[in-house]
């Protein structure tokens, strides 16, 4: 078992528990205090700049134990160094060329299969549209039937910001795009590429299912979302970055919707004060206070 690292509090206690020898003033030797004063006069600024820095307290076991106790951040640190090397040595894609997308490279065989079989492409597009309808139906059901608006609020946040970002930077339609009349948006109308609303809405629905412990349904939605992910890459309906950010957007806006709901449940000082101010002036102050407390309880219950 590793020995516990000394804390500032334990160090402080150790210092003050020492027996005074006549030369200690406030836990610091008088000679050190005088020396510190001389250093200030000489321009040293008293203590060293990094004397109390965290890394000055690290020991060999602390450094070696980082990889053992925190492997994931260490992997991230290694990947940071790797991608720094890649970024500064990689040749940029020229403006005349189409964007390079690793997801397009990985799904090239499936793209060729769908390109040579239009009926299969139409079938998959129709199934994907059904899945979009399932997402929409579930999100609206949680609000209209179950009275839980968080997923609906999250979807509204998500699609609003998708519209802002999609309009701000309009990406070119990928070469080789395989559209279908039964795909969503229906009829191959123009759409924003960044980011994927299909994927983000699926994540929002899945997170809500997990909150109410609908584990099996959440796993089904996750599996369908992965298939949707692959299909959108194979048909060149989205770039890989659109889909990856779609996952992050679903998680982010679900969290923001939760914070919004919590903010609406917290009683504010204004509501409590208003309850007291608008109470019957003829009643004693205790009645006015009771009115304020009732206002607070109603605010918490909302």
TrEMBL record:
Keyword Transcription tagged: no
Ordered alphabetically, the record's keywords are:
Membrane, Transmembrane, Transmembrane helix
| InterPro entries assigned | AtPDCT1_2_TM_dom, PDCT1/2-like
Superkingdom of this protein's organism? Eukaryota
* Limits of the AtPDCT1/2 transmembrane domain: 100-259
Q: Where are the transmembrane segments?
A: 123-144, 151-169, 189-207
Name this protein carries in UniProt: AtPDCT1/2 transmembrane domain-containing protein
MF terms from GO for this chain are: diacylglycerol cholinephosphotransferase activity
**Protein species of origin:** Rhododendron griersonianum
Question: Matching PANTHER family, A to Z?
Answer: PHOSPHATIDYLCHOLINE:DIACYLGLYCEROL CHOLINEPHOSPHOTRANSFERASE 1-RELATED
List the Pfam families: AtPDCT1_2
């Amino acid at each position: 078992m590793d020995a516990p690292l000394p804390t500032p509090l334990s160090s402080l206690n150790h210092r003050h528990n020492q027996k005074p020898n006549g030369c200690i003033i406030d836990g610091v030797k008088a000679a050190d205090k005088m020396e510190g004063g001389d250093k200030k006069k000489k321009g040293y600024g008293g203590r060293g700049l990094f004397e109390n820095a965290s890394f000055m307290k690290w020991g060999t076991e602390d450094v070696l134990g980082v990889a053992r106790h925190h492997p994931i951040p260490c992997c991230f640190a290694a990947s940071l160094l790797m991608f720094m090397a890649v970024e500064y040595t990689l040749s940029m894609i020229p403006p005349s060329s189409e964007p390079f997308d690793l997801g397009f490279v990985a799904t090239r065989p499936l793209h060729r299969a769908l390109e040579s079989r239009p009926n299969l492409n139409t079938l998959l597009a129709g199934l994907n549209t059904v899945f979009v309808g399932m997402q929409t139906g579930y999100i609206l059901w949680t609000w209209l039937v179950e009275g839980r608006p968080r997923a609906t609020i999250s979807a509204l946040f998500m699609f609003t910001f998708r519209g802002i970002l999609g309009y701000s930077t309009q990406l070119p339609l990928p070469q080789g795009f395989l559209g279908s009349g039964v795909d969503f948006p229906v009829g191959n109308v123009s759409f924003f590429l960044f980011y994927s609303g299909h994927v983000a809405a699926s994540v929002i629905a899945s997170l809500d299912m997990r909150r109410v412990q609908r584990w099996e349904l959440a796993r089904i939605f996750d599996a369908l979302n992965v298939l949707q992910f692959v299909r959108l890459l194979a048909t060149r309906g989205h770039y890989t970055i659109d889909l990856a950010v779609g996952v992050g957007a679903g998680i982010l806006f679900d969290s923001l919707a939760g914070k919004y709901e919590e903010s609406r449940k917290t009683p504010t000082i204004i509501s409590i004060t208003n309850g007291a101010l608008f109470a019957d002036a003829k009643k004693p102050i205790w009645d006015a206070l009771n009115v304020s407390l009732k206002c607070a309880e109603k605010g918490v219950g909302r």
